[in-house]
C-alpha cells in the first residue's frame, strides 16, 4: 500500500513566473523511507508543504494515508507529523512548555500531555534543558525538540524537511540515530535532504529532483547502476604505468583510462572484488607495488552529474558525519 | 466547538506563559500608560482650564483609558505578525486544531493583558486625584466597556497582522492609525477649540464616543461644541456599542478568512 501519493503536482509563484513544482509525481510505500534529494530551490520544501496541507498545488493531486490533502486537510493533519526546514517552536517558551502546549493542541488530556512531554524529552535527551527557553538551545537541540513536537501523537506518516541541515557532524549523527529508530517503529517517512550521503544512509528509495521535477528514482543501488557499475582504481609509480595499464585492461576487458597527474589507472569492472584480487596478483607477479588500489562505487554526486549533466554545485558534500554505518 | 474553545485557550495560555518568561513586556506595557497619566496630569493639567469639579484629571482619565485600550490594535497586530513570520505558524497549521484557534486565542490573551493594565492605571489615576463619582457598578461597567472596545479593536489588529509582511511594519502602521484617532478626539482636550470640520470628525470618532461614554459612566459631564445635539454626542454609549459590533462584524469574518487563505 502506498502511504503517500503525489500526482502531477504543479505549483507556481509570482503569477507563473517561478515554477516551484513542474509536474512532480512521487509515492512512498507504507513503512518505508523515501528521500527527496535535490539542490537549493529544487522544490523540496514546496513538495513537503503541499503534502502536509500547508499549501495548495495549482494543479495535480496528492493523498496521504489514502486521504486527499486538498479536499480533506483536517483528516490528513490527524495522521501526519511535520518537522519543517526551520525549527517551528516558540522561542520564548521552554522546551517543556512547548511540548505540553502542542500535546494539548493534539487534544491529549492534562496528565497525558505531561506524561508524553516527559517521555519525549527523555527520548531526545532534552530532559536537562527542559526548563530553559528555546532561545538558549543549540541548533541540534532545537531540531530535536522540533522533531519531538511532531511525534506527539505517533504519526503514521512523517515529513522531515532537511532534518540535519545546519547540524555539526555529531548532531547529524545523533539525528540519524533518532530517525533510524523511528523507522524501526514502522513510521512512513518522507525526508528531504541536500546531502547525498544522508539519502544513501537513511532511505529505502531516493527521488532526485531538480527544477521541480523528479529526474530519477530508485534505490541508491539502482541509481548508482544507472551511472555505471564499479570502477577499479590503481595508483602506481610513473615507471610502472604502462605495464599496469595492460594488466588492468586484461582483467577489465573494457576501456582503461589514465589520470596522469594522479598516476591513477581506472577501468570499469563487473566482477568486483574478484577483479581486484586478479589485478593485485598480476601486479605482484610483475613486481609492481601499487601505491593505492581500490574499488570505487559511484557516489550519488556522480549520479547527479550523469542525470543532470551538471554538477550539483549547491549540493554540499556532507561533512565527515557517520562514516557509513550501513543500516539494517 | 468544544475543541475550538479549548484550543483557543491553549493559545491564550501560551501568551501568558510568554509574559511570565519575559516579564519586561508586561512591566513596560503598564509603565507606559502610567507615564502618560503622570505627564498629562502634571504637564498639561495646569494649562488646560476645564471648570470641571475635581480638575482636569477627571476628564483626562477616561481619555487615557481609551487611548490605552486602542493601542491593543498595535499589540495584537505586531504579536500576530511576529508569529506569522516564523516557522512556528506552520506547526500550528499542521495541527488538527480549529483554524480560528490561533487568532481567537490571541485576542483573548490581549484582553487579559488589558485587564492588568487598566487596573494599574486606575490605581495610578486614583493616586493623582481621579475620583469617579458614579458608584462602583457604573465604574465597573465602564471598565467592561473598555475591555470590549479593546477586544473589538484587537480584531482589526488581527487583520492588520495577517495583512502585513513584517512585524515592524505592522507596528508602525497601527500607530499611524491609532495616534491620529486618539488625538483627533475629545480624549485630551475638549473639541470646542478645533476647527469646525474637525469637530464633526472628532465627535463621530469612535475614540470620542468611547471617551464620552466612559465619562458619562464615571459621572463626569461631557462638553460639546459645534456638534452638540448630534446622535453620538447624545448617545455615546449606544454609539460606542454600535461601533464595536460593526468592527467585529467586519473584521472577525475578514480575519478568519484571511488566516485560512494566508498560506495559499
Ligand atoms: N513564496 C514564494 N514566492 C516566490 N517564490 C517561491 C516562494 N516559495 C518558493 N519559491 C521558489 O520556488 C522554488 C522552490 O522552492 P523550495 O523552497 O521548494 O526549494 P527547496 O528545494 O526547499 O530549496 P532549499 O534547499 O533552499 O530549501 C525556488 O525557486 C523558490 O525560489
Ligand atoms: Mg527547502
What does this 3D model show about the protein?
Among the domains of chain A are: 2-79 and 155-224, P-loop containing nucleotide triphosphate hydrolases (Rossmann fold); 229-297, Alpha-Beta Plaits. Chain A has 11 helices and 14 strands. Chain A is 35% helix and 25% strand. By secondary structure, chain A is of the alpha/beta class. With 264 residues, chain B is mainly α. Chain B has one domain (29-92, 118-262). The chains are: A alpha/beta (328), B mainly alpha (264). The interface between A and B is medium-sized, with 32 and 25 residues. Adenosine-5'-triphosphate binds at residues 13-14, 18, 20, 38, 40-46, 85, 194 of chain A. Chain B: Residues 24-262 form the ABC transmembrane type-2 domain. Chain B: InterPro entries: ABC2_TM, ABC2_TM_bact-type, ABC_2_transport, Nod_factor_ABC_transporter. Chain B: It is a multi-pass membrane protein.
Distance between the termini of chain B: 25 Å
Arrangement of strands in the largest sheet of chain A: 6-7-8-3-9-10
Distance between the termini of chain A: 22 Å
What is the helix tally of chain A?
Answer: 11
Q: State the secondary-structure class of chain A.
A: alpha/beta
Q: Under the CATH scheme, which class of one domain in chain A?
A: Alpha Beta
Q: What is the H-and-E element order of chain B?
A: HHHHHHHHHHHH
Please tell me how large the radius of gyration of chain A is: 24 Å
Q: Oligomeric status of the shown chains?
A: heterodimer
Shape label of chain A: elongated
CATH superfamily of one domain in chain A: P-loop containing nucleotide triphosphate hydrolases
Low-confidence stretches of chain B: none
Order of helices and strands of chain A: EEEHEEHEHHHEHEHEEHEHEEHEH
Give the helix level of chain A as a range of percent: 25-40%
Query: Helical residue percent of chain B?
Result: over 70%
Q: Name the chain pair whose interface involves the most residues.
A: A-B, 32 and 25 residues
Q: How confident is the prediction overall: mean pLDDT of chain A?
A: 87
Mean pLDDT of chain B: 88
Bound molecules: adenosine-5'-triphosphate, magnesium ion
Count of individual helical segments of chain B = 12
Amino acid at each position: 500500500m502506498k502511504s503517500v501519493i503525489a500526482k502531477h503536482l504543479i505549483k507556481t509563484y509570482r503569477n507563473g513566473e517561478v515554477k516551484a513544482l513542474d509536474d512532480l509525481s512521487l509515492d512512498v510505500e507504507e513503512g518505508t523511507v523515501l528521500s527527496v534529494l535535490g539542490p537549493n530551490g529544487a522544490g523540496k520544501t514546496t513538495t513537503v508543504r503541499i503534502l502536509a496541507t500547508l499549501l495548495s498545488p495549482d494543479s495535480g493531486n496528492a493523498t496521504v494515508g489514502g486521504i486527499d490533502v486538498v479536499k480533506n486537510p483536517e483528516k490528513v493533519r490527524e495522521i501526519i507529523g511535520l518537522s519543517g526546514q526551520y525549527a517551528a517552536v516558540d522561542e520564548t517558551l521552554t522546551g517543556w512548555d512547548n511540548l505540553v502546549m502542542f500535546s494539548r493542541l493534539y487534544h491529549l488530556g492534562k496528565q497525558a500531555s505531561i506524561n508524553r512531554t516527559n517521555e519525549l524529552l527523555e527520548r531526545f535527551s532534552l530532559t536537562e534543558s527542559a526548563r530553559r527557553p528555546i532561545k538558549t538551545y543549540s541548533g541540534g537541540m532545537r531540531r530535536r525538540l522540533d522533531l519531538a513536537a511532531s511525534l506527539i501523537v505517533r504519526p503514521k506518516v512523517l515529513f522531515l524537511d532537511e532534518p540535519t541541515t545546519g547540524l555539526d557532524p555529531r548532531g547529524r549523527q545523533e539525528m540519524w540515530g533518532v530517525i533510524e529508530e523511528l523507522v524501526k517503529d514502522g513510521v512512513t517517512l518522507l525526508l528531504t535532504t541536500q546531502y547525498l550521503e544522508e539519502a544513501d544512509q537513511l532511505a529505502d528509495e531516493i527521488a532526485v529532483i531538480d527544477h521541480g521535477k523528479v529526474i530519477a528514482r530508485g534505490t541508491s543501488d539502482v541509481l548508482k547502476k544507472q551511472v555505471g557499475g564499479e570502477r577499479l582504481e590503481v595508483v602506481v609509480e610513473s615507471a610502472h604505468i604502462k605495464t599496469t595499464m595492460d594488466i588492468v585492461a586484461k582483467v577489465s576487458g573494457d576501456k582503461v583510462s589514465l589520470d596522469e597527474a594522479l598516476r591513477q589507472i581506472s577501468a570499469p569492472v563487473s566482477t568486483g572484488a574478484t577483479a581486484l584480487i586478479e589485478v593485485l596478483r598480476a601486479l605482484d607477479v610483475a613486481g609492481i607495488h601499487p601505491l593505492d588500489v581500490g574499488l570505487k562505487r559511484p557516489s550519488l554526486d556522480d549520479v547527479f552529474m550523469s542525470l543532470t549533466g551538471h554538477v550539483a554545485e549547491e549540493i554540499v558534500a556532507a561533512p565527515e558525519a557517520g562514516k557509513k554505518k550501513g543500516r539494517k | 466547538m468544544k475543541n475550538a474553545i479549548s484550543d483557543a485557550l491553549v493559545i491564550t495560555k501560551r501568551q501568558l506563559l510568554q509574559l511570565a518568561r519575559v516579564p519586561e513586556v508586561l512591566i513596560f506595557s503598564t509603565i507606559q500608560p502610567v507615564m502618560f497619566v503622570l505627564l498629562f496630569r502634571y504637564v498639561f493639567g495646569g494649562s488646560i482650564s476645564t471648570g470641571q469639579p475635581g480638575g482636569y484629571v477627571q476628564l483626562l482619565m477616561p481619555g487615557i483609558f481609551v487611548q490605552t485600550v486602542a493601542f491593543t490594535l498595535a499589540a495584537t497586530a505586531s504579536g500576530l505578525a511576529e508569529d506569522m513570520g516564523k516557522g512556528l505558524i506552520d506547526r500550528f497549521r499542521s495541527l488538527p486544531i480549529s483554524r480560528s484557534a490561533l487568532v481567537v486565542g490571541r485576542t483573548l490573551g490581549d484582553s487579559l493583558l488589558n485587564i492588568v493594565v487598566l487596573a494599574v492605571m486606575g490605581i495610578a489615576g486614583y493616586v493623582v486625584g481621579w475620583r469617579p463619582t458614579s458608584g462602583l457598578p457604573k465604574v465597573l461597567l465602564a471598565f467592561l466597556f473598555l475591555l470590549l472596545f479593546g477586544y473589538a479593536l484587537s480584531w482589526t489588529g488581527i487583520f492588520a497582522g495577517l495583512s502585513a509582511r513584517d512585524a515592524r511594519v505592522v507596528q508602525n502602521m497601527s500607530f499611524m492609525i491609532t495616534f491620529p484617532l486618539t488625538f483627533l478626539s475629545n480624549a485630551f482636550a475638549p473639541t470646542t477649540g478645533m476647527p469646525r470640520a474637525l469637530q464633526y470628525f472628532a465627535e463621530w470618532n469612535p475614540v470620542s464616543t468611547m471617551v464620552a461614554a466612559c465619562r458619562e459612566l464615571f459621572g463626569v459631564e461631557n462638553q460639546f461644541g459645534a456638534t452638540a445635539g448630534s446622535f453620538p454626542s447624545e448617545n455615546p454609549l449606544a454609539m460606542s456599542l454600535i461601533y464595536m459590533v460593526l468592527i467585529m462584524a467586519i473584521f472577525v469574518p475578514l480575519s478568519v478568512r484571511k488566516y485560512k487563505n494566508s498560506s495559499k
